[in-house]
Amino acid sequence: MTLSEELTWRGFINQTTLTDLSLLDGNQWTFYHGFDASADSQQIGNLAAMMLDRTFLRHGHKAVLLAGGATSLIGDPGGKDSERPMQGEDVIAHNVECAETQLRQIFTGYNFTMVNNLDWFKDMNVLTFLRDVGKHFSMTPLVQRDYIAKRMGETGSGISYSEFSYTILQGYDFLHLHKNFGVNLQLAGSDQWGNGLSGVDLVHRVTGDEVQVLTLPLIINQSTGKKFGKSEGGAVWLSAEKTTPTQFYQFWINLDDGGLEGYLKVFTEYDKDQIEEILAENVKQPGKRYAQKRLASAVTELVHGQQPRELSETVTDYLTGSKNVSEATDQVLTEIRKEIASVKSSSEGSIIETMVLAKLAQSNTEARRFLSENAVTINSQKISRENFQASDFVNGRLLLRRGKAFKDSALVEL
Length: 414
Hints:
A hairpin with a 2-residue loop joins strand 7 (230-231) and strand 8 (234-235). The longest helix has 18 residues, at 89-106. The model has no long low-confidence stretch (mean pLDDT 91). By secondary structure, the protein is α/β, with parallel strands linked by helices. It is 46% helix and 13% strand. The chain folds into three domains: 3-216, 3-Layer(aba) Sandwich (Rossmann fold), CATH 3.40.50.620; 230-319, Tyrosyl-Transfer RNA Synthetase (Orthogonal Bundle); 334-413, Roll (Structural Genomics Hypothetical 15.5 Kd Protein In mrcA-pckA Intergenic Region, Chain A), CATH 3.10.290.10. The chain has helices at 3-10, 23-26, 44-58, 71-74, 89-106, 118-121, 126-132, 139-143, 146-152, 161-164, 166-181, 193-207, 245-253, 260-267, 272-284, 290-304, 306-319, 330-339, 351-357, 364-372; strands at residues 15-16, 30-35, 62-67, 113-116, 185-189, 212-216, 230-231, 234-235, 341-344, 376-378, 381-382, 397-402, 409-413. Helix 11 (166-181) packs across helix 12 and helix 13 (245-253) runs antiparallel to helix 16 (290-304). The protein is elongated and about 80 Å long.
C-alpha cells in the first residue's frame, strides 16, 4: 500500500494543497508538525496527529517536530470564542519540556529533528518582524478567516493584535524550517488549515518555492458526535500523572463498537488484514470486547510502554472481577489503590458505613437502598446483608462494588 493509499484508507486526509495525493509517493518529503505547549501534556486528540506523522515516517520521509515555545506564549485563536489567559514564560518552558518528552516516547525508534520556535523568535525585534515578515501578509484574507471574522463580528468577543498575529508567526515557522531544514510539507490538524496556508503563501512570496500543507480531520466520537478524547473525568491525557495508564487503558476498553474500525485505523498501526481480522473476531465474541482490548493494548503500549501496559491490563482484570483481588501482588495492589477508594474494616464491620466511607453511597439510607436493590457485590457476588463476614476477606481484602462501573468500587482491607 502506497503512502497516499494508506493515508486515504486510514482516514487521515481532510484538506491539502497537493493537486494529487500520489505526489506523496514518488518524492522524498521533509515535513514539519507543530505541537502546542499551552498545557503540560498532550491529549489523545494530539495522538491522532502523531499517528499521521508516524505513517509518513514508516514510508521513509523525514520529520521535524516543533514544540511551540513561542507561539504558545501568544495562544492560537483558532476554535476559541474568547482570548485565553496568557501563561508565564516559565510555565510554557516547562510545558515544552513535557511535550518533547512525550514526542520522544511516541516516536521511539524513528529518526527525527526536534525544534522549539522560541529559538528563532526570541531574538527577533519588532521592526525586523514587521518589515521582513508582516509586509508579505495582506489584511484582507486574514480578516476573512472564519475564526477571526467570528471574533470580530458584532456578537464576537473581539480579538487582540497578539492573537491576530498568531497565523503570521506560524507562517514564519514554515519559512524558517524550509530555509534551514528543507521542510516542504506541513502536517496539521483541521483547525490549522488557515495557518498552514499562511506558511505556504509566505514561503512562495519570499523564496519562490512551492511547499504544501496537509491536514487530518477532527476525530469524532461516533457514539456521542462530539470531539473524540473526552471521558467522564475530562480530557484523556498522555501524561501518566494526569491520566494514569490504567485510566488510559480503560478509556479505550470502554469505547462502543460503533467507531472501532476508525479508531483502529487512526490510533494503531495494524494493517488492513489485521483490522479486518480483529473486527471479525469481535463479532464472533459479542460482549467480550475483543477489539477494544486489542486497541487499548496497542495504544497504551505506544504511549506508556510495555510494562505499564501489562500492569494496566492486570489491574483492569482485578477491577472488573476477571481475577479475584485476593490474588493481587503488592505491586498490583499499589496500582489498584490509585484507581479506586481504599478503606479499612473489621472482619464483621458494617457494609453500610464502609460504602459511605468509600463514597459508594452518600448516606446510610442510600447505602441500604443500594443493598435492597441488589446493586452491591463483594468479589463479584451480589449481597444484601449489612455486615461483612470473615469469609468475605481472603488474604485480608475484598472488592466492594456498587453497580457495574469499576470506578464505583472500593478495596476493603482488614
